[in-house]
From TrEMBL:
Primary site of residence: cytoplasm
Pfam families listed in its UniProt record: RsfS
Biological-process GO terms, alphabetical: cytosolic ribosome assembly; negative regulation of ribosome biogenesis; negative regulation of translation
Species of origin: Candidatus Lucifugimonas marina
Protein name: Ribosomal silencing factor RsfS
Family: Belongs to the Iojap/RsfS family.
Function of the protein: Functions as a ribosomal silencing factor. Interacts with ribosomal protein uL14 (rplN), blocking formation of intersubunit bridge B8. Prevents association of the 30S and 50S ribosomal subunits and the formation of functional ribosomes, thus repressing translation.
Length: 124
């Protein structure tokens, strides 16, 4: 007898990262970068780095990215920071999304810290 039950598949890390890029782009995030850190980082295969205009913009993008991931069967493992602080981190275990105001992004300089990572996508 054939099993006709549908199993829900969970998205892989690259799909989650690309969905975060797409969602941020749709919500008018700027200078969006997807870095592959597999083999370089022990805690994430992908980093997504996004700039936003205001604290509310960062919070809104974070919520939209989290909502989209839930629809993909993936839940946030950890969230840190706040829009008011100019920096938010969303951890999906294997994919880390960083949302910054422009000033905070420049201050932290993540792209400079992860120069060995492979840039997969950049959306201006």
């Amino acid at each position: 007898m054939e099993d006709t039950t549908k199993t829900k598949t969970v998205a892989n890390n690259e799909e989650i990262a690309r969905a975060a890029v797409d969602e941020a782009s749709e919500k008018l995030g700027s200078d969006i970068v997807l870095l592959e850190t597999e083999g370089i980082s022990s805690f994430a295969d992908y980093f997504v780095i996004i700039s936003g205009e205001t604290d509310r913009h960062l919070e809104s993008m974070a919520e939209d990215i989290s909502r989209r991931s839930r629809k993909m069967g993936v839940h946030v493992t950890h969230r840190e920071g706040s829009g008011k602080g100019g920096w938010l981190l969303i951890d999906f275990t294997g994919v880390v999304v960083h949302l910054f105001t422009r000033d905070q992004r420049e201050h932290y300089g993540l792209e400079d810290l992860w120069t060995r990572a492979t840039e997969i996508v950049r959306v201006q």
